[in-house]
Amino acid sequence: MQQAAEPTASPVASLGGARERRFSRRALLGGAVAASVGWVALRSPLDLWPDASALSSDLWTATGEQREVVLPQAATVLLNTQTRVDLQRRNDTVTGLVLRSGETEITTVANTRDFMVSAGQGRIAAGRARFNVRYTDERVRVTCLEGEVDVAHGAQRSRLGPAQQVVYNDIRLTDVQDVDTRRVSAWRQRVLVFDGMPLNQVVDEVNRYRPGRIVLLDDRLGRTPVQAYLSLDRLDDFATLVREVHGANVRSLPGGVLIIS
């Protein structure tokens, strides 16, 4: 978002009249208030409410929210936290979607030919299938849970069967890998699974689900691997985990802010 230009001196105020000066101050104050209201509407600094980009999407979830949406004669779409989706239609029938950000699990209906999902620089086509697409940190992760899905990224093509996954960014598509689908879909049971993930990445993941902000100030601590199962319904346990298991200092501030050092 472009920053507002700095206010310049009013030509009316430069005339020197008292009434003109009062008018100039009122106008300047009014402009500042209007600009601040616009900033608040467009962006929530602590993820306390959805931003304007989410509200403009066909489907979206707020921080910590999960939704199920049934698209008649097309698919059932499960949206994880902080997810934005636009629907693709042909003759008033939904034929696919565009994942702008976040994570979704899609189950297509039996008579679907090619349900298309666009995310970043890739496209996913599925007939009868269930699959997970996650688009965070400028990377897209596609995991087939049931059936088969085709992934296209530029000139590269991959076909995925159950328990197979590819990851891509703007430049390349990885080889097909076998994965544990229980971990991929753990969010559906409202659980986060961390198996050796560095603490700094764990903090980033928890911040996707938790209003407010966790700030990690210790780089060395941030490289520490974490083994944990964390319930989305008990995210306050994260502070206890970091304090008791990793010996960190955790300070709680208003607005859901946690400082870890």
Encode the helix/strand succession as letters.
Answer: HHEEEEEEEEEEEHEHEHEHEE
* Main beta-sheet annotation: 11 strands, mixed
Approximate helicity band: 10-25%
Structural class: alpha+beta
Strand content: 35-45%
Number of helices: 6
Mean pLDDT: 83
Radius of gyration: 23 Å
Task: Sum up the overall morphology in one term.
Answer: globular
Tell me what the CATH architecture of the largest domain is. Answer: Sandwich
Q: pLDDT under 50 segments (min length 5)?
A: 1-43
CATH class call of the largest domain = Mainly Beta
Q: How is the CATH topology of the largest domain named?
A: Jelly Rolls
Give the tally of β-strands: 16
**N-C termini distance:** 31 Å
* Overall tally of domains: 3
Structure description:
It is a single chain. The protein is α+β, with helices and mostly antiparallel strands and 261 residues long. It is 22% helix and 42% strand. The protein has 3 domains: 13-42; 52-184, Jelly Rolls, CATH 2.60.120; 190-260, Phage tail protein beta-alpha-beta fold, CATH 3.55.50.30. Strands 1, 2, 3, 4, 5, 6, 7, 8, 9, 10 and 11 form an 11-stranded mixed β-sheet that branches. It has a 3-stranded mixed β-sheet with strand order 13-16-15. Strand 10 and strand 11 form a beta hairpin. The longest helix is centred in the N-terminal third of the chain and has 25 residues, at 18-42. The two termini are 31 Å apart. Residues 58-149 form the FecR protein domain.
